[in-house]
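User: Hi! I have a protein structure encoded as tokens and I'd like to know what sequence might fold into it. I'm fairly new to this, so please keep things simple.
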């Protein structure tokens, strides 16, 4: 006896009832739009998102020597800075560091050679310099880097290490 042949379902035959069924279910229970003005009014009080600044204290923003363990602007402590290549394109830094405070501090002088194009660091070095209250001292960083002046620049920074 020959075997009965099974027919594979046809995709189109299955898709039509599914699509029609979904459309029928989608139409059930849909709300009807109301009139544009149904008389309802919504009132929301304005809520502040930024509060006024009520901080109290000194408005003195002028950097000065520290008092009673406070901070001062260390960047102005380094003066007369020369940072450039010398003989053989060897870079070095010289300058004078002054402690304007009435206490002894250890200053960290940082020097950076960076690429002018993108500011990326080529080399850096830090030097710690202890200074008595009111004292000044020469600062130098020799043989920082060897390379041409074109395409790079020298940047410096000063911080107070013991604060």
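Assistant: Happy to help. Inverse folding works backwards from shape to sequence: for each of the 163 positions I chose a residue that suits the local structure. Here it is:
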């Amino acid at each position: 006896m020959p075997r009965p042949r099974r027919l594979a379902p046809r995709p189109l035959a299955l898709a039509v009832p599914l699509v029609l069924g979904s459309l029928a279910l989608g139409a059930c229970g849909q709300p009807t739009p109301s009139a544009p003005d149904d008389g309802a009014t919504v009132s929301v009080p304005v809520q502040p998102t930024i509060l006024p600044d009520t901080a109290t204290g000194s408005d003195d923003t002028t950097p000065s020597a520290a008092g009673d363990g406070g901070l001062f602007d260390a960047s102005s402590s380094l003066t007369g800075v020369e940072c450039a290549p010398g003989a053989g394109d060897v870079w070095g830094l010289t300058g004078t560091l002054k402690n304007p405070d009435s206490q002894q501090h250890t200053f960290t002088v940082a020097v950076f050679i960076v690429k002018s194009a993108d500011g990326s660091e080529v080399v850096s070095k830090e030097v710690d310099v202890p200074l008595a209250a009111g004292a000044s001292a020469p600062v130098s960083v020799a043989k920082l880097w060897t390379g041409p002046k074109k395409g790079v620049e020298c940047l410096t920074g000063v911080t107070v290490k013991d604060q």
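A useful reference point when you look it over: The longest helix spans residues 11-27. Feel free to ask if any position seems puzzling.
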